[in-house]
Each structure stands twice: as C-alpha cells, then as structure tokens.
Design goal:
single chain, alpha+beta, 6-stranded mixed β-sheet, globular
Amino acid sequence: MQKALSNLSIKRYFNLFYNRMKYNFMNKFFLLILITLAAAPSVFAQQKQQVEQTFIVKDASKLYDVKIKIGNCESNDVCYEAATVYLMKKNQTQAFQTFEMPEMYLGLSTDKTLDGKPLELKRGEIYGFGFADYNFDGVLDLTLSNGYNRPYGGISNDVFLFDRKKNKFVKHEALSEIETENVSVEINKKQRIIEAMTKSGCCFHKTARYRMVNNRLVKFYVQTEEWVESGAEITTERLVGKRWKKTFKIKRMN
C-alpha cells in the first residue's frame, strides 16, 4: 500500500514538474515572438534606408565619362558595396570598358537626394576613383577604390594601366599592392618616380621609391626610421647597379 502511494506521489510530482516546464517554455517562446515582432519595423527601416544608386561623372577626364552603379548608399556621405564601373568615351552611351568591383568605396559631398535614380555629380562631389599617369607614358591610367584596406583604415585602390596594344585598361598587381599596403602613394612627374610611405604608430616610418621600367615596378630606394630612447635609427638602402647598398645612422634627440 505504501509503495503504491509512493509511486502515485512520484507520478503527480513528475506531472506537476512537466506542466511547469511546459508553461515556462511556452512563455519564453511567445516572449521571443513578441521581441522579434517588435524589432522587425526597425530592421525593415534600416534595410529601406539602403539605396542602390547610379552616379554619372562627366568632368573627371577629357576622354571618358564615368558611370558607377553601387549598392548600400546609407547616406549622402558614403557608399560602400560591390559596384559596376562603366567607362564611356565622350558623347557616347555605350561602355568602352566595364569593371566589376567586389568592393568599392565612394565618398560623397553633395546635398542631392539619393533616391535610386541616376544622379550626375561633379568631380569634387564624389571620391573613390581617379585618373593619373603611373607609368609616365603620357596616357592617364585609372584607379578604382577597393575598400578600406590601407593602414589605419584608409581607402585603398586598384590601379589599371592603359595598354595601347590591347586598347583597354589592365589591372597592375604591383601598383595595386603598394596602393593598398601604404599610408600614402605620390607620383612625382618631374623625377618620374613613385614614392610610397607607411608607418606604425609614432615611432616607425618607412619610405620606398620606385621607377617604372617597361611597366614593371622597380624599387630602388628604401629608408626606414625607427625611434628609440636615444633617438632615431635611420637605415637607408639604395640599389646601385644590381646590388643594394645600406647605410645606417642615429639621429640623436636634443
């Protein structure tokens, strides 16, 4: 008799425990649904703010008009997403060349509304592409931003040299690399050299200089400056003929 009562008590306790667990689970389940429904309008609102936009720029080059179709324009300040870039020769609607960019950054400086319709901007109103003569052959080459890949989150670029024989722009891997790995890249037209600078914090700076030889990027000078307690340790390397020569000096702190 006592054993039967004991088994009955255990069964009642189990049923009570099961019902409470079921009740708590259902409460949590419905609470999760309510939270999801409450958050949905804000999620949809965020998605609605993102606009796929087409920009047209006609004053960036004397030879080409530029059309860029890019997604994820969240404001009038920046667009950052995959993009398609069309180069069209002046007064032509058909693309001379098309570039598919997995990532592209466009900085904007305009009060015009981004509503998804094609929008014509002046060169000073949009940043993220440009024309410059990297190989000093008298023909402007093309740069297209590929994201925030420079040190310190700077805007990096792919470089496309114009190939006269192929009559199109061709990506140059070495130039694209230095336009990604360095803080800044400058083209010195007078000396016909390219200078790249990178740094790490306050106390390490590195400058490299290059020449373009038959469209090959050739490094011929590197200077590294590293600050320590006693001052700056400066290492300079120069390519003389086919060999590198290195000098070292310490710039003492005053």
